[in-house]
């Protein structure tokens, strides 16, 4: 499907073509993405069931993990249905307002995920660097305030993106070379001056992802300083092990996020490579997060095993 040369005034619909250059293979590409989505849905659902019922997991780190799981579920729901409909049923059209709504939820949930990762890093910092004050600092009211602040920050900053897009009237095309509505992909359709949109998009990216990444790095620099000065090797390993799951989740999220972000704005990456990587960035971390924490957390492993044993027992 190609774009036209005519200008579109206040378009009512947009056309999502999926993965440009790989349209003939999209039907088969949809199956691995479906598998990733199912793993994400099952894994995060298990976490949201296990964390409330397992008393040993009623700790700040796992409360933040539950919020992260809810965010990951939201991302899968926001992206997967329309993407798979494009791949399997040639459902290319989408209402322009629905596109802006999807754009908002995708970027707001990304911002929330980044903020929760920063909150988890702060939890590890206090637990290792100031353990005697951990329970007095990370109280229930503090956790609620942190989650609310993360949600409000993402909602307010990202909420301005679709408002700025809505003020644009003329578009040189309504064809989006993507499998979901992404901010810069929509901005590039405009036939007007979009400098404000681009500048504000960069501001939001650095105000959320850049800010959070810097402070996560600072947290771990301080953590490693304390860990390396512990007198016993066993104490060092034990302290480091409490951080490994978060470090893996943090790295997978930010490495993919910044590659996707910069390749879209400044890189010369083939379009289908960028679309594939940006989709992987949004869908793979939600699938990996419950696996990483499930492998590293004994209580989660035990509860999952009990659930499957119980299920197999009732079937017999």
Automatic annotation (TrEMBL):
Alphabetized SUPFAM superfamilies for the sequence: Family A G protein-coupled receptor-like
Keyword Oxidoreductase: no
Main location: membrane
GO molecular function per UniProt: G protein-coupled receptor activity; olfactory receptor activity
Membrane topology classification: Multi-pass membrane protein
GO cellular component: plasma membrane
Transmembrane spans: 27-50, 62-89, 95-122, 142-165, 202-230, 242-263, 269-293
Domain of life from the UniProt record: Eukaryota
Segments forming domain G-protein coupled receptors family 1 profile: 43-293
Location(s) in or outside the cell: Cell membrane; Membrane
Function according to Swiss-Prot or TrEMBL: Odorant receptor.
Name of the molecule in the record: Olfactory receptor
Natural source organism: Sciurus carolinensis
């Amino acid at each position: 499907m190609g774009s036209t040369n005519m200008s579109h005034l206040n378009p009512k619909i947009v056309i999502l073509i999926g993965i440009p250059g790989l349209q003939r293979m999209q039907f088969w590409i949809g199956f691995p993405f479906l598998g990733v989505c199912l793993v994400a849905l099952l894994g995060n659902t298990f976490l949201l069931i296990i964390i409330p019922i397992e008393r040993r997991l009623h700790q700040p780190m796992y409360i933040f993990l539950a919020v992260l799981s809810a965010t990951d579920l939201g991302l899968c729901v926001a992206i997967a249905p329309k993407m798979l409909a494009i791949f399997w049923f040639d459902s290319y059209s989408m209402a322009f307002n629905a596109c802006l709504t999807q754009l908002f939820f995708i970027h707001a949930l990304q911002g929330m995920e980044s903020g929760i990762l920063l909150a988890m890093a702060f939890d590890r910092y206090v637990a290792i660097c100031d353990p005697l004050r951990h329970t007095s600092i990370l109280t229930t009211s503090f956790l609620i305030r942190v989650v609310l602040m993360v949600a409000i920050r993402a909602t307010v900053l990202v909420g301005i993106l679709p408002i700025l897009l809505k003020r644009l009237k003329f578009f040189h095309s309504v064809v989006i070379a993507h499998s979901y509505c992404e901010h810069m992909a929509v901005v590039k359709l405009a036939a007007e001056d979009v400098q404000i949109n681009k500048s504000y998009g960069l501001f939001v990216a650095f105000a959320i992802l850049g800010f959070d990444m810097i402070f996560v790095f600072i947290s771990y620099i301080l953590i490693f300083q304390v860990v390396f000065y512990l007198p016993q090797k066993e104490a060092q390993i034990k302290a480091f092990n409490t951080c490994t799951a978060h470090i893996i989740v943090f790295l997978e999220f930010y490495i993919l996020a910044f590659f996707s972000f910069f390749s879209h704005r400044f890189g010369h990456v083939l379009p289908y490579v960028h679309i594939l990587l940006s989709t992987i960035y949004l869908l793979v971390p939600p699938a990996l997060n419950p696996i990483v924490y499930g492998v590293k957390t004994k209580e989660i492993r035990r509860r999952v095993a009990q659930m499957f044993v119980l299920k197999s027992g009732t079937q017999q």
